[in-house]
Structure formats: structure tokens, C-alpha cells
Write a structure and sequence with these properties.
Belongs to the D-isomer specific 2-hydroxyacid dehydrogenase family. Strand 7, helix 8 and strand 8 form a beta-alpha-beta unit. The chain has twelve helices and twelve strands. With 304 residues, the protein is an alpha/beta fold. It has a seven-stranded parallel beta sheet with strand order 8-7-6-9-10-11-12, with helices on both faces. The protein is 37% helix and 14% strand. The structure holds nicotinamide-adenine-dinucleotide. Nicotinamide-adenine-dinucleotide (NAD) binds next to helix 5 and helix 7.
């Protein structure tokens, strides 16, 4: 018996039910995030779990006496107490890399949306105002990529198509990777001083928390655009507000926030921001990959 909670699981994979049937599984679907008591109830007789963003408690794991495997539908496993699950002999899998290209596409879309004020133009037009905005080209601009992992590199590949000059900062990545992607390996300070566009692709850690703060915004070009599709908290929202309000930088695009969902923020009042609800990974293709890979993780676990 497998409990499946992600909303978009199987939505675009026609054969998925047949796959479970052939493998002799009973599927129980309930769209999450599930409250803890419901999760406990449903897990009480489940052998496997495919989990989305539900917060899995240690108590829920205790209640799951038959549970042998958890497959995260996605990459981040911060909602799962992995160490605790493993101490109970439960194996935990995720689906690395499934949304890299989706997030990279979205990052470029966000950069262009900010540079050309596309959401503001749309809002004006549908409100009956035929008023144009003057934007900034991204062609041949300098993009600074903070964190040169899978998504940072996918952004670099796309930026090349715009003839951008690519700077990247990531002390944990070898020189060869920078060379291969035609990016200049620079220090953090060089990147923020020289970039027209600063794009954040590093995880939230003690080291990266509020890495982009007022002091850093002050060192950026006044025409700079900052976008964050990685994790809220790497950019200080309060300091970003000050920077945008005081014109220290030109504009910003955020897909992630330190507290999600965000209901109110001073940033909502500004005209030079584009804000979206942690949406960068949400594509049909990523959902298909997450469905296939999370299912395979469970089926191969039981067949090995
Ligand atoms: P990744 O692990 O491949 O890359 C992260 C890179 O950051 C690594 O190369 C690492 O060396 C670097 N890094 C870590 N600490 C650093 C530091 N202090 N200074 C400089 N570089 C540092 O991860 P990824 O798949 O490229 O994902 C990047 C981020 O995007 C993650 O935070 C992930 O959670 C986030 N993400 C967001 C969405 C979304 O929906 N918006 C979807 C997927 C991933």
C-alpha cells in the first residue's frame, strides 16, 4: 500500500495507475499538505509514501509501523526527518535534477519581466491604460550568478543566448566547470560590483543567510537587477525593500520568501518588483519527471 500526497502527481502521466497495478500496489491518494493527525492515520498501514511538501513529523513515522520507504516528490527533503526515518530502517529517496531546466527557464523569464516591466504593462493594459514603460535590454549585459550548481549553470547556458557576459561565484566548484560554461570565476565582491543582473542560485545555509543585505545592495550598480529563485532568506527582504525604495538598484524579482506563503510585505507596494509564489519549478515536464522518478524509486526498492 502506497500513500501519495503531491497535488500534481500523475496529472500528466497517463500510465501511472497501470504501473502500480502491475506491481501489485494499492494506491491511496489524498492531496497534501496533510495535517499531522491525518498523515498518521493514513500511514498506519502504508508500506510506502510519496510525499510532496507535507511536513512529516517523527510522531507520524512512529505511527507508520509498516513503512519501509519514503520517496520525496521533488528535490528538497527539509520537510522529512531523514535521520530519524533512517534510524527506523526506512529508506528515503528524492528526485534530484528534475526541475533544473524549469527553474532556469523561469529565472530568465523573471529577469526579463523585471527588465521590461512585463507584469506592470499587462496590469496597465487590462486596467484600460495604454501606457508604455521604458525598459533595459539584457543583450550583452553582465550577469552575476551566485551559486554555480545545476541551476546556476543552466542559467549560464541560457544567458549565452543573450550574448551576456557571465560572472559566477561559487568557491565549491572547480575551475574546469567555469571554463566549460564560459563563465569568469570571480569573488563575491567583484560579482556584485560588476553585474547588471545578479541571480541567486545557492542554498540557504548559515553562510548564505542574508548574504544580500543593504551593505551589499549599496555596492551594486544603480541599474542592477536582482533575482532570487533559490531560497528566501538568502536575500534580506527588509534590506531589499530599502534598496528598491532608495533607488540603490533598479529592480528585483523574487520567487521565494523567508516565510511562505507570504500574505503581506512592504515589497507589494513597490513598482519595480516582480513577485511570484514559489512557482519556478512548476511545469508539466517537471511534474512528469517527479512522478516517474518517485514511482521508480519505490518500485525498484521493493524489487531489489
Ligand atoms: P545545487 O546543489 O546543484 O547548486 C547549489 C550551488 O550553491 C552549489 O554549487 C554550491 O557549491 C553553491 N553554494 C553553496 N553554498 C555556497 C556559498 N556559501 N557561496 C557560494 N556558493 C555556494 O542546487 P541547484 O539544484 O542548482 O539549486 C539551487 C537552489 O535553487 C537551491 O537552493 C534549491 O533549493 C533552489 N530551488 C528552487 C526552486 C523553486 O521552485 N524556486 C526549485 C528547485 C530548486
Amino acid at each position: 500500500k502506497v500513500l501519495i500526497t503531491p497535488r500534481s502527481y500523475g496529472m500528466y502521466n497517463e500510465d501511472i495507475d497501470r504501473l502500480w497495478e502491475q506491481a501489485g500496489f494499492e494506491t491511496v491518494r489524498e492531496i497534501g499538505p496533510l495535517p499531522d493527525d491525518r498523515m498518521r492515520e493514513l500511514l498506519s498501514d502504508a508500506d510506502a509514501l510519496i510525499i510532496g511538501t507535507d511536513k512529516l513529523s517523527e510522531a507520524a513515522i512512529d505511527a507508520a509501523s509498516k513503512l519501509k520507504v519514503i520517496a520525496k516528490y521533488g528535490v528538497g527533503i527539509d520537510n522529512i526527518p531523514v535521520g530519524y526515518a533512517e534510524s527506523k530502517g526506512i529508506k528515503v529517496f528524492n528526485t534530484p535534477g528534475v526541475n533544473t531546466e524549469s527553474v532556469a527557464d523561469y529565472t530568465l523569464a523573471l529577469i526579463l519581466a523585471v527588465a521590461r516591466k512585463i507584469p506592470q504593462n499587462h496590469a496597465n493594459l487590462v486596467a484600460g491604460r495604454w501606457s508604455k514603460t521604458t525598459g533595459m535590454e539584457v543583450y550583452r549585459k553582465t550577469i552575476g550568478i551566485l551559486g554555480f550548481g545545476a541551476i546556476g549553470r543552466a542559467v549560464a547556458r541560457r544567458a549565452k543566448g543573450f550574448d551576456m557576459n557571465i560572472l559566477a561565484y561559487d568557491p565549491y566548484v572547480s575551475e574546469a566547470v567555469f571554463d566549460e560554461l564560459g563563465a569568469d570565476k570571480v569573488t563575491f565582491d567583484e560579482l556584485i560590483r560588476q553585474s547588471d543582473i545578479v541571480s541567486v542560485h545557492m542554498p540557504l545555509t548559515a553562510e548564505t543567510k542574508h548574504l544580500l543585505n543593504e551593505n551589499v545592495f549599496r555596492r551594486m550598480k544603480r541599474e542592477a537587477i536582482v533575482v532570487n529563485t533559490s531560497r528566501g532568506g538568502v536575500v534580506s527582504e527588509q534590506d531589499l525593500y530599502t534598496a528598491l525604495k532608495e533607488g540603490l538598484i533598479r529592480g528585483a524579482g523574487l520567487d521565494v520568501f523567508s516565510e511562505e506563503p507570504v500574505k503581506h510585505s512592504p515589497l507589494f507596494e513597490l513598482g519595480n518588483v516582480v513577485l511570484t509564489p514559489h512557482n519556478a519549478a512548476a511545469t508539466i515536464e517537471a511534474a512528469q519527471r517527479m512522478t516517474t522518478e518517485s514511482t521508480q524509486n519505490i518500485l525498484s526498492f521493493f524489487s531489489s
